[in-house]
Amino acid sequence: MNRTNYSETGTTIAAISTPQAPGGIGVIRISGPDARKIAGRVFSPSGKKSLEELPGYTALYGRVFDESGAIDEAIALNFRAPKSFTGENVVELSCHGGLVILRRLLRAVIRAGAEPAGPGEFTRRAFLNGKIGLTEAESVMQLVSAQGEQAAKAALAGHEGALERRIASIRGKLLGAAAHLSAWADYPEDDIPQVTGEELKTSLGEVKAELDALLRGFDAGRVLREGVDTVIAGRPNTGKSTLMNLLAGCERSIVTSYAGTTRDIVEDTVLLGGIPLRLADTAGLRDTADPVESIGVGRARERVRSARLVLAVFDSSQELDESDRALIREVGDTPCVAVVNKSDLPIKINKEYIENNIKQTVYLSALTGAGLSRLEDAVASVLGTKELDPSDGMLYTERQRDAAARSLQSVTEALDALESGMTFDAVTVSVEDAVSALLELTGERATVAVVDSVFSRFCVGK
């Protein structure tokens, strides 16, 4: 879509920009051409300066009020267009973070002339006014919702333009190829060096590799953003519950020396090496005549089948039995780390059998915590995040992934056309389609419906 200067015709909007919960400080954000005028109707500075004469990036202390009197002490922070987040005039009123205070102040601001902001409307205006790109806007939501440090780093890099720059580099290579092809086809009589098919294959092959890497990073990045459903499984008394407690950092599961203590599923979410794991500690896998325990074992097997990651726990101080071997078979193709527990005891287990059947095998003591770092590395390897650099530009959303996939498909079609000996005109069409998909990804050629969809997912006040 073509961006317009929203501030020329836009209304002035307002919303609470801090969490809707009691806190030390709360902020009302006002954005639009009349931001200072409206703020001046509810804010009284303690000194002689007024908001209208205040330079940008400066603040005034005073009080906020409505028709019934003073609401609270406050600080008014002034931003002058275009040097603000939205690109418009912005005033932020900071007061104490009580919900009664904030809601009363917001009502006063709306009565003074502002309109209530819709979901993501501040960030939408920043996009429409050219302050940020669409992928940078999407990274704002990822930053707000990040569950771990790695995800937050990746989102911050995106907000600072890492993905935009990566896409721009790929697009530049495609545009260079398209321009050369078009110039040679349109003006064959001019002295334009003819690009060869092999040169095009090399250039487009490099672009294909970059798009492939970008799409692979999406799956790994999703692990950091959304977390992974993880099951701790094994026969009774292998130390599953002790491992659960070690990872959770507290006593979430009951630990005893009696087999079959855990009967129902115990769940918790933890961060392991920056990866959010939604853990499920399950009943020990074995044949049992106890009807209650049998239900727990059945649920455990169901979780193993549906898990995204299995931590298969074995007791290193015991020989492998049929329950252990059955677990290895049940895991199948599911990403799995073999956790050979009780490494502080003499080892009797058949290590070779486990290592031959489960690629990632670690030895640790859930009781002492020794070997936990090895488990972190193994989980990262299995889930594909070990080599992931959060500072690289990453795809965050299905919309972005879809656009990148369409661009890759067009590049593949261009390479196929070259291989089959088709004309350069046919190659040019596919290259231009690849460029178009990337322009949609960055928002430079996104439809109004796409932009509306992106910002509808934001919260009010962002």
From TrEMBL:
<dbReference type="Pfam" id="PF01926">
    <property type="entry name" value="MMR_HSR1"/>
</dbReference>
<keyword id="KW-0630">Potassium</keyword>
<dbReference type="GO" id="GO:0005525">
    <property type="term" value="F:GTP binding"/>
</dbReference>
<dbReference type="GO" id="GO:0046872">
    <property type="term" value="F:metal ion binding"/>
</dbReference>
<feature type="domain" description="TrmE-type G">
    <location>
        <begin position="227"/>
        <end position="384"/>
    </location>
</feature>
<feature type="binding site">
    <location>
        <position position="92"/>
    </location>
    <ligand>
        <name>(6S)-5-formyl-5,6,7,8-tetrahydrofolate</name>
    </ligand>
</feature>
<keyword id="KW-0378">Hydrolase</keyword>
<dbReference type="GO" id="GO:0005829">
    <property type="term" value="C:cytosol"/>
</dbReference>
<dbReference type="InterPro" id="IPR004520">
    <property type="entry name" value="GTPase_MnmE"/>
</dbReference>
<dbReference type="Pfam" id="PF12631">
    <property type="entry name" value="MnmE_helical"/>
</dbReference>
<dbReference type="GO" id="GO:0003924">
    <property type="term" value="F:GTPase activity"/>
</dbReference>
<protein>
    <recommendedName>
        <fullName>tRNA modification GTPase MnmE</fullName>
        <ecNumber>3.6.-.-</ecNumber>
    </recommendedName>
</protein>
<feature type="binding site">
    <location>
        <position position="262"/>
    </location>
    <ligand>
        <name>Mg(2+)</name>
    </ligand>
</feature>
<dbReference type="GO" id="GO:0030488">
    <property type="term" value="P:tRNA methylation"/>
</dbReference>
<dbReference type="InterPro" id="IPR005225">
    <property type="entry name" value="Small_GTP-bd"/>
</dbReference>
<feature type="binding site">
    <location>
        <begin position="237"/>
        <end position="242"/>
    </location>
    <ligand>
        <name>GTP</name>
    </ligand>
</feature>
<comment type="similarity">
    <text>Belongs to the TRAFAC class TrmE-Era-EngA-EngB-Septin-like GTPase superfamily. TrmE GTPase family.</text>
</comment>
<dbReference type="InterPro" id="IPR018948">
    <property type="entry name" value="GTP-bd_TrmE_N"/>
</dbReference>
<feature type="binding site">
    <location>
        <begin position="256"/>
        <end position="262"/>
    </location>
    <ligand>
        <name>GTP</name>
    </ligand>
</feature>
<comment type="function">
    <text>Exhibits a very high intrinsic GTPase hydrolysis rate. Involved in the addition of a carboxymethylaminomethyl (cmnm) group at the wobble position (U34) of certain tRNAs, forming tRNA-cmnm(5)s(2)U34.</text>
</comment>
<dbReference type="GO" id="GO:0002098">
    <property type="term" value="P:tRNA wobble uridine modification"/>
</dbReference>
<dbReference type="Pfam" id="PF10396">
    <property type="entry name" value="TrmE_N"/>
</dbReference>
<dbReference type="InterPro" id="IPR027368">
    <property type="entry name" value="MnmE_dom2"/>
</dbReference>
<feature type="binding site">
    <location>
        <position position="29"/>
    </location>
    <ligand>
        <name>(6S)-5-formyl-5,6,7,8-tetrahydrofolate</name>
    </ligand>
</feature>
<feature type="binding site">
    <location>
        <begin position="281"/>
        <end position="284"/>
    </location>
    <ligand>
        <name>GTP</name>
    </ligand>
</feature>
<dbReference type="InterPro" id="IPR031168">
    <property type="entry name" value="G_TrmE"/>
</dbReference>
<keyword id="KW-0342">GTP-binding</keyword>
<keyword id="KW-0547">Nucleotide-binding</keyword>
<dbReference type="InterPro" id="IPR025867">
    <property type="entry name" value="MnmE_helical"/>
</dbReference>
<dbReference type="InterPro" id="IPR006073">
    <property type="entry name" value="GTP-bd"/>
</dbReference>
<keyword id="KW-0479">Metal-binding</keyword>
<keyword id="KW-0819">tRNA processing</keyword>
<feature type="binding site">
    <location>
        <position position="462"/>
    </location>
    <ligand>
        <name>(6S)-5-formyl-5,6,7,8-tetrahydrofolate</name>
    </ligand>
</feature>
<dbReference type="GO" id="GO:0042802">
    <property type="term" value="F:identical protein binding"/>
</dbReference>
<feature type="binding site">
    <location>
        <position position="241"/>
    </location>
    <ligand>
        <name>Mg(2+)</name>
    </ligand>
</feature>
<keyword id="KW-0460">Magnesium</keyword>
<dbReference type="InterPro" id="IPR027266">
    <property type="entry name" value="TrmE/GcvT-like"/>
</dbReference>
<comment type="subunit">
    <text>Homodimer. Heterotetramer of two MnmE and two MnmG subunits.</text>
</comment>
<keyword id="KW-0963">Cytoplasm</keyword>
<dbReference type="InterPro" id="IPR027417">
    <property type="entry name" value="P-loop_NTPase"/>
</dbReference>
<feature type="binding site">
    <location>
        <position position="131"/>
    </location>
    <ligand>
        <name>(6S)-5-formyl-5,6,7,8-tetrahydrofolate</name>
    </ligand>
</feature>
